[in-house]
Amino acid sequence: MALPKLNSVKYELTLPSTGEKVEYRPFLVKEEKALMIAQQSGKEADMLRAVETIIEDCTFGKMKKGDNAFFDIEYVFLQLRAKSVGETVDVAVTCPDDKQTRVTVKINLEDVKCVKNVEHKEKIELTDTVGIIMRHPKIADLALIDSNNPETTFELIESCVHQIYDSDNVYEKTDMDKKDLKDFIESLTHEQFQQLNAFFETMPKVKHSVKVKNPNTGVEGEVVLEGMANFF
Prior knowledge:
Blueprint: E1 11-14, E2 21-24, H1 29-41, H2 44-58, H3 70-84, E3 88-94, E4 102-108, E5 113-115, E6 123-125, E7 131-134, H4 139-142, H5 151-159, E8 161-165, E9 170-172, H6 178-186, H7 190-201, E10 205-213, E11 220-226
Antiparallel strand pairs: 1-2, 3-4, 5-10, 6-7, 7-8, 8-9, 10-11
């Protein structure tokens, strides 16, 4: 005789990148187990792969692995964690006045927002007639970054180019030769290249501010937490 099946509660959230409504369910014991195994490996890549898989399953296949902006992944996972394990988490932060003392603060994950910068834009006008349309980086793109290798910054930019246009044509990334794209990026002036950097610097961020009081000095301050990892 087959055992009864349990029905999960459904919730709805809004994707920061598009404003699209997405249904989701809390993650189950099997998914929590997969997350624990990934955490125990100590490898960030394993953790991120587990998170992507859980999000795809918990959004009923709506958010497929490899298709989502990284800040969407971070925001959605925090919402899943809030509904699955509990809304509040205890986070250790460093007091800003002495930059040494650690204190624990309680954070409600449902208060954590994906903050958008009004200066952020995906269309970058390099000249009066030539420009680039960028796409937001995904987990696979961020895996390119190596802080010890400056060349990876260029690889990230090239990976996130969606289109290049001029007064006559629109050139799709899928039709671009890799060397031609690299040569195009390297031909930019310093000012034009800074416009591309600004795209990444002003991207939406999962962010939350907390007030802390240093127990040793009595000084109150504010700590800004950014990124999914800082909430656990």
